[in-house]
Design brief:
Distance between the termini: 83 Å
Strand order of the largest sheet: 1-2-3-4-5-6-7-8
Structural class: alpha/beta
Shape: globular
Radius of gyration: 24 Å
Strand content: 5-15%
Mean pLDDT: 91
Low-confidence stretches: none
Length: about 500
């Protein structure tokens, strides 16, 4: 039997898939980090440009500072960043030298493992990104084979990509990334051996979401098919639209006769902390999913599914979800079967929503226009001619085609001033200025969080806003608390 390693996805993909990338704050991460360090994970799927942007936008916290503090608490476990290689936080493509600056600062701040995820599987672009990452000092570069089901994405397609990645001197490992959770055990029995044969001695990992219940079964047989590492989520940040839950995965792999060298007690403590956090913050826990054949059609990844449901609910149209899902499958086919991984799920779902709300392709986002113009590379299959004509036959397409190239780091420094750090420069260049201003004004983020104290602190904060409350006493078996409002002196008035 095989030795199987594990990568934890709770802090990045679990948070994005189940909690809309907004559930975790700096204090949460810093409290659980020492526990995750003890588990023995090979790496943590730690951050992405989306996660960094959400931390600034939602919580007014500095993602660079959080990375530095996490690294100090986790000196041994690799911290992973995932990116496309052509954009940072914003949807617009960034200058190659700006991306080099991103990689340089990631490495300096503690990131030592990066996934190269080119959404078009453009190997020239992936090789160039891997080269730049190594230039920045990233220790481990992981090439992503993003799995999807279509007429063109067969085993031979992925084996050819794996062969090219194995031949690249700057790619250290490869993983099969299944964002929609549609890799069945049956398909894995042909796909994974084909990929492993093409990789030779290059290590193979598997990342498969639990969205329709396939991945726990696929993980159970993956080691016998050449997979050395599987990726999971801890406690409430596993299952559902996230990845298989870590404790159950360990139990299943051991039951199949494989060896999983992790600290079970530390894993239990990490899961317990996240369970208490979810309860206190009223965040949903992932649950094992029933099989849903519709996912084989629309392939909407977990994080996008969560966000889409929330957006429909906010505009009072949650009842249109099934119609939207059907339209997503049609739009994806018309756009040449883009793999449903960032930024394409957001692009396809947004276009499907436009189509459901009005005439099909009457409204088209700038990102769909850029996609049709080739800004993201060449689609695996051609865009439907009538859709291509409809998208490009509009004034906005001509405006975008004439866009100037993205600014270089030197141009950004002239624009934003030379008195700020490179980290702040990168945030200001790719986010609204008022959001970065709010982050700076908020000061250092809290570093401590105790789920047991959270209800008391919330009570005190809310009572503090009520000027009629002068004294408060709380008594229970393990807690006695008295609070008196300070009265301002009136002497000399």
């Amino acid at each position: 039997m095989a030795d199987v390693g594990m990568v934890d996805v709770s802090l990045r993909d679990g948070n994005q898939s189940l909690w809309g990338a907004t559930g975790l704050r700096s204090a949460h991460v810093l409290q659980v980090a020492p526990l995750l360090e003890r588990v023995g994970f090979r790496a943590l799927d730690y951050s992405s440009s989306t996660a960094m942007g959400m931390l600034v936008r939602t919580h007014r916290e500095d993602p660079w500072e959080l990375t530095r503090r996490t690294r100090a608490l986790m000196p041994r476990t690799k911290l992973q960043f995932i990116g496309t290689g052509f954009r940072f936080i914003s949807w617009q493509n960034a200058h190659p030298e700006t991306m080099q600056l991103v990689y340089d600062r990631l490495a300096v701040n503690g990131i030592d493992r990066v996934v190269v995820l080119d959404p078009m599987h453009d190997m020239d672009a992936a090789r160039e990104t891997a080269r730049r990452l190594k230039q920045a000092g990233i220790d481990e570069v992981v090439g992503a084979l993003t799995f999807t089901i279509s007429a063109v994405h067969d085993d031979a397609f992925y084996a050819d990509l794996a062969r090219q990645m194995a031949a690249c001197p700057d790619v250290d490992r490869v993983y099969v990334k299944d964002p929609a959770g549609i890799l069945s055990a049956e398909r894995a029995r042909t796909l994974l051996p084909a990929v492993k044969a093409a990789l030779g001695s290059t290590a193979l990992e598997l990342h498969s979401h639990a969205t329709i219940g396939f991945s726990p079964q696929t993980y159970a047989i993956a080691p016998e098919l050449g997979v050395e590492v599987v990726q999971t989520g801890c406690g409430p940040l596993g299952n559902g639209s996230s990845l298989p839950e870590a404790r159950r995965t360990v139990a299943n792999l051991r039951e199949m006769g494989h060896r999983v060298d992790i600290d079970d007690r530390a894993l239990g403590l990490a899961c317990d902390f996240l369970d208490r956090l979810a309860a206190v913050e009223e965040l949903p826990a992932g649950r094992p999913q029933d099989f849903d054949a519709a996912f084989l059609h629309h392939q909407i990844a977990g994080g996008v599914m969560t966000t889409t449901r929330r957006q429909l609910r906010e505009i009072g149209m949650e009842d249109r979800f099934e119609s939207l899902v059907e339209e997503v499958g049609q739009v994806r086919a018309e756009l040449g079967h883009p793999i449903m991984v960032t930024p394409f799920p957001q692009m396809v779902v947004s276009q499907a929503l436009f189509n459901v709300l009005g005439e099909r392709y009457a409204n088209v986002s700038d990102q769909v226009i850029r996609y049709a113009l080739g800004a993201f590379g060449r689609p695996t299959a051609p865009i439907a001619p009538e859709v291509l004509d409809r998208v490009l036959d509009r004034p906005r397409a001509r405006e975008l085609q004439a866009e100037p190239p993205p600014p270089s780091p030197e141009q950004l420094r002239r624009q934003f001033g030379r008195g700020i750090s490179d980290e702040e420069l990168l945030l200001r260049a790719h986010m609204p200025g008022e959001q970065v201003d709010a982050m700076v004004a908020a000061g250092p983020a809290p570093q401590h969080f105790n789920p047991g104290l959270a209800p008391v602190l919330t009570l005190l904060r809310e009572l503090g806003q009520r000027e009629t409350v002068q004294d408060l006493a709380v008594g229970k078996a393990d807690l006695r608390l008295s609070v008196h409002r300070r009265r301002e002196s009136t002497a000399g008035v």
